[in-house]
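Milestone 3.1: sequence recovery, worked example.
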């Protein structure tokens, strides 16, 4: 008669004492402090609770240990499964995660693939939302700024979900396009992110993404949200969603006939090179009444043209147009406010390059 083994493989991360000696040298000495912070935040404990691992004869590692090794490897710029296997050879990594031996590539792949089949990716995403919501609650802010952006993650293989679509960096290459990233600007905190196939249009799913992000914020703490995003989020349904929640927004306008629309407006000069205007416009397909648009026109350069055989210099304009429900700000002030979101571009590059977002190659997990 066989008895089912119900014992779990427990995992508790350890803290490593740092010594300046010639024994057990490591290339990742700074990882000790990082791991202590992760442990202090309760992330290891949450992974252990979320993915309990039943002990079998061949089981040497818990799922929490596997995921923690991938997490620490990503922080160190390691994202290939074979390199993660080599990463766990390191004496410091082995002691931090209490590994009985190094984790081989096949074990990592089997665990991650199994999690994908059981909906583990969704569970990890919900863990991210719960954790970020807790951090926002602790900061005590009543009004937060959400900066949303998208970026193309180019891949060089046959990763699941990667497809050929618009890719300004590597035309014709497969990519996740574009992943949506949302930051709480005041905290420099990545609060939500989605990976999408390379063939996805920029605005696909933005309403569901923002709705999920807003739901992650603690309603008893955060009373108002200021949403700021590029033209990929120019969506009437999204504006309806934000207005229903009495939130503010500032989004860059994306229209096929935008230049013709702006040319016909009445412009008010601010200085010799700059002019502004505002107008009400109803886009096709939008349910609600027309919304307020604000635009800034700047002389980019003077170009020489031939007008009835006579040479003349005429201005070449550069236009910036925004849709917003903010009160008390003119077009130039909104243009300056939108420009301050440029810092989020740096955060996206850090997420992509420093944290290896979207680069760990294995089936469901990209």
């Amino acid at each position: 008669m066989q008895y089912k083994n119900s014992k779990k493989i427990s995992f508790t991360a350890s803290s490593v004492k740092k010594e300046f000696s010639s024994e057990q040298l490591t290339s990742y000495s700074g990882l000790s402090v990082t791991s202590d912070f992760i442990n202090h935040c309760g992330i290891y404990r949450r992974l252990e609770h979320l993915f309990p691992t039943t002990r079998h004869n061949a089981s040497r590692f818990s799922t929490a240990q596997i995921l923690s090794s991938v997490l620490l490897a990503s922080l160190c710029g390691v994202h290939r499964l074979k390199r993660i296997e080599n990463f766990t050879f390191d004496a410091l990594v082995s002691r931090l995660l209490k590994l009985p031996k190094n984790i081989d590539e096949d074990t990592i792949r089997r665990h991650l693939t199994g999690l994908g089949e059981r909906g583990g990716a969704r569970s990890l995403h919900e863990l991210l939302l719960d954790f970020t919501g807790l951090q926002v609650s602790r900061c005590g802010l009543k009004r937060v700024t959400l900066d949303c952006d998208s970026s193309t993650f180019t891949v060089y293989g046959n990763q699941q979900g990667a497809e050929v679509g618009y890719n300004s960096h590597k035309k014709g290459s497969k990519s996740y396009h574009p992943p949506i990233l949302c930051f709480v600007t005041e905290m420099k905190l990545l609060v939500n992110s989605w990976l999408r196939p390379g063939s996805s249009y920029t605005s696909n799913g933005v309403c569901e993404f923002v709705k999920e992000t807003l739901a992650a914020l603690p309603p008893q703490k955060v009373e108002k949200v200021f949403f700021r995003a590029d033209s990929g989020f120019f969506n009437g349904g999204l504006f309806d969603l934000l207005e229903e929640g009495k939130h503010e927004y500032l989004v860059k306008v994306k229209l096929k006939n935008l230049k013709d629309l702006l040319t016909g407006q009445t412009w008010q000069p601010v200085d010799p090179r700059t002019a502004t205007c505002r107008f009400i416009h109803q886009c096709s397909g939008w349910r609600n009444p027309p919304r307020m648009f604000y635009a800034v026109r700047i002389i980019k350069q003077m170009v020489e043209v031939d007008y009835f055989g006579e040479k003349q210099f005429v201005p070449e304009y550069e236009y910036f147009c925004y849709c917003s429900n903010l009160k008390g700000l003119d077009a130039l002030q909104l243009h300056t406010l939108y420009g301050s979101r440029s810092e989020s571009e740096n955060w996206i590059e850090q997420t992509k390059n420093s944290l290896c977002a979207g680069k760990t190659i294995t089936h469901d997990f990209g």
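The chain has two domains: 31-118, 123-354. Residues 31-118 form one domain.
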